[in-house]
Amino acid sequence: MCITLIKLKSWLLLILFCLFTSTVNAVSMLTLPGSFQPPGIDGTFSDDAEFSWIKHRFTSQNSYFSWRFGGGTDGGVIFDQSQAYTEMTDVMTMFNNPAGFYSVGNGLSIDQNNTINMSNLRMSHSGIIYDVGSGSGFDAFIPYVDDLSSLLERENGWSITNGNYHLFYNTRGICADCEMTIHMYGAAVSSVPVPASIWLIGSGLISLFGFVKRRKN
To answer: Which of 59, 76, 79, 133 could join 31 via S-S bond, C-beta 3.0 to 4.6 A?
Structure first.
């Protein structure tokens, strides 16, 4: 009986170790609200606006323009798979030309620390493809932060509150000196914190271990 309990305890520790070292993501999808409302709006949306938007700045004019966009057929970003812009975002109108975001390769990804990798993000505008991910010259990673107000100017970050998220990604727009801020707002699907899920499973296994021990006695 002691040998059996020792083996069971060893298996329990091994399972918990695998859970702690796994890279299971807490978030599998970021949905976008509503649908696109045209067209460009002179000025900018507030950072806490309850919809998704793009803020574009031309350094030569030192002026900002904003566009609102919404979810495509898949409602937003699904991690670890490429998506056409008709799946990720509705086609919007930028300077009277159709535009939309999409992803290539393995798509956008998220790691065990909930850092989002935007390297594979692209934008199609007026038939021209722009690399607004790894080729933009900006940091393509968006870390998870508890407080978005702590972000510095032009700093990436995203956060979840009550299942809803706000994500700010700063990149380059449709010209060499342009700057663009992409604000995604919506619902975070499967947004259970990783440590909480691990402890939930772990506590269940520990309870099972105790039950088996009592049965053996």
So the answer is: 76
Enclosing domain of residue 51: 29-195
Q: Does any domain span residue 185? A: yes
Helices (H) and strands (E) in the chain, counts: 3, 15
This prediction's pTM: 0.77
- Looking at the domain assignment, is residue 89 inside a domain? yes
What total number of domains does the chain contain? 1
| 96 inside domain | yes
Residue 67's contacts (CB-CB under 8 Å, 6 or more residues apart) are: 39, 40, 41, 53, 54, 56, 92, 93, 94
Is residue 215, in this structure, part of any structural domain at all?
Answer: no
pLDDT digits (tens, 9 = 90+) for 117-164: 999 999 999 989 999 999 998 999 999 999 999 999 889 999 999 999
Tokens of 24: 């299971």
pLDDT band with cut points at 50, 70 and 90 for residue 2 = low
* Cα–Cα dist 107/85, whole Å: 12
pLDDT digits (tens, 9 = 90+) for 42-76: 778 888 888 999 998 887 777 788 888 999 999 99
168 class by beta-carbon count within 10 Å (0-12 exposed, 13-18 middle, 19+ buried): buried
